[in-house]
Design goal:
Helix content: 40-55%
Number of strands: 4
Strand order of the largest sheet: 1-2-4-3
Largest sheet: 4 strands, antiparallel
Shape: elongated
Oligomer: single chain
Length: 121
Amino acid sequence: MREMQHFTLAEKVKNLLATAGLGIAATADPGYSTGARVEIDDPGSGEVAVYVAWRVHPTLYHHFLTVDPARLAADERVALKVQLEKSMYQALRSVLEYAGFRVDRATGERAGELHVTPGPQ
């Protein structure tokens, strides 16, 4: 039953984001897909939750991986990637909160993503 709640939450989040005009990433690999990636939290964790991450276009992602670390701060395409991600995370948060979901910053190995749970019932 708990696992079904996780899947239902993930589908609700994906449907909402798609309805808002935001693309849904087809794969977990950021090198191959663009848009919001919705992943189910550990179904055994006790909390019904999903994680949402934004995937920029694969060309920006691949460029980021190839830039010399000493040049990251000065690279224009890296700056574009960072700004796009920042803007899209704000949009994701805004849409999800408007719809009544609770949205927090993820921590630990999921830092940088959004932790989404059902809002108050």
